[in-house]
C-alpha cells in the first residue's frame, strides 16, 4: 500500500513559494537564474529534474512557483518520494509527497496514482527520473523507466518539462543555481529513448554554458 499525498492548497503554495523564494534570494544563494520555456495552458505538468541533493524538492518548488504559479497555470504540487524517506519524515506527505517503494508490488499502484494526478489540469508532478542521487556535474545521466510507465496511463493533456539544475560558486562565497528548462513535448507523443537522448544532450550543453572549464578532447 502506498502513502498518498495531502497536498497544500493553492493559497499555501503561494505563501510557501514566496517565503522559499525570499530565503533563497536573500539568505542562501548569490544568484538564481532561470532559463524558462513556454507553459501550455489547461495542461497538467510533469516536471523532471536532475537529482543531486536533498534540497531538490525545494528547488523544484521554487521553480514551479516562479514559472507556473505566478502565471496561474498550476494549482497543486505533488512529489514522488521513496517510501523509506516518507516513513522517516512524516511531514513530506503534507507537502504533496506520495510514496514509491522500488522492487515491491506497490510500485504499480504508485505509478497508476501518478498518472491519475496528471489527468487533472493544473496538477504538477515533480519527478526525478534518475532514481538516485548523482552529482549535478556528471555528463551523462541514466534514467529509470518509471516515467515510461506513467505517461501511457495519462489520458489528459500533460506537458513534459525538464530542468537541468546546476550549482556553482565562482567568485561568491554563496552558491549560484542555474535552472535550464527544456520543453519536452506532451504525454501523447512521448518516446522514452528519445527523451533520454534529448535530455542528456541538453544537460551537456547546459554544463558548457554554466560552468567555465577548459575545452575537453573528445
Notes on the structure:
By secondary structure, the protein is α/β, with parallel strands linked by helices. It has one domain (10-205). The chain contains 6 helices and 7 strands, in the order H-E-E-H-E-H-E-H-E-H-E-E-H. The protein has helices at residues 10-28, 56-67, 83-88, 107-118, 146-150, 192-210; strands at residues 31-35, 44-49, 76-82, 97-100, 123-127, 158-168, 176-186. Strands 1-7-6-2-5-3-4 form a 7-stranded mixed sheet, sandwiched between helices. It is globular, with a radius of gyration of 17 Å. The model has no long low-confidence stretch (mean pLDDT 92).
- Average pLDDT, all residues: 92
Report the principal-axis shape: globular
Number of separate strands: 7
Low-confidence stretches: none
List keywords for this structure.
alpha/beta; 7-stranded mixed beta sheet; 22% strand
Task: Present the secondary structure layout.
Elements: H1 10-28, E1 31-35, E2 44-49, H2 56-67, E3 76-82, H3 83-88, E4 97-100, H4 107-118, E5 123-127, H5 146-150, E6 158-168, E7 176-186, H6 192-210
Parallel strand pairs: 1-7, 2-5, 2-6, 3-4, 3-5
Antiparallel strand pairs: 6-7
Helix pairs in contact: 1-2
Quick rundown:
This protein is of the alpha/beta class. The chain is built from six helices and seven strands; from the N terminus they run αββαβαβαβαββα. It has one domain.
Amino acid at each position: 500500500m502506498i502513502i498518498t499525498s495531502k497536498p497544500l492548497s493553492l493559497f499555501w503554495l503561494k505563501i510557501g513559494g514566496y517565503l522559499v523564494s525570499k530565503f533563497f534570494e536573500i539568505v542562501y544563494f548569490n544568484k538564481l537564474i532561470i532559463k524558462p520555456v513556454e507553459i501550455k495552458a489547461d495542461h497538467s505538468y510533469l516536471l523532471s529534474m536532475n537529482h543531486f541533493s536533498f534540497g531538490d524538492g525545494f528547488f523544484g518548488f521554487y521553480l514551479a512557483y516562479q514559472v507556473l504559479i505566478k502565471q496561474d497555470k498550476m494549482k497543486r504540487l505533488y512529489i514522488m518520494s521513496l517510501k523509506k524517506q516518507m516513513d522517516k519524515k512524516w511531514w513530506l506527505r503534507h507537502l504533496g509527497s506520495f510514496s514509491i517503494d522500488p522492487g515491491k508490488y506497490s510500485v504499480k499502484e504508485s505509478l497508476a496514482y501518478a498518472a491519475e494526478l496528471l489527468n487533472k489540469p493544473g496538477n504538477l508532478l515533480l519527478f526525478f527520473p534518475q532514481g538516485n542521487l548523482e552529482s549535478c556535474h556528471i555528463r551523462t545521466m541514466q534514467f529509470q523507466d518509471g516515467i515510461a510507465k506513467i505517461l501511457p496511463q495519462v489520458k489528459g493533456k500533460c506537458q513534459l518539462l525538464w530542468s537541468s539544475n546546476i550549482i556553482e560558486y565562482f567568485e561568491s562565497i554563496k552558491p549560484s543555481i542555474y535552472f535550464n528548462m527544456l520543453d519536452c513535448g506532451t504525454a501523447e507523443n512521448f518516446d522514452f529513448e528519445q527523451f533520454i537522448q534529448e535530455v542528456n544532450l541538453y544537460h551537456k550543453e547546459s554544463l558548457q554554458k554554466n560552468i567555465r572549464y577548459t575545452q575537453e578532447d573528445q
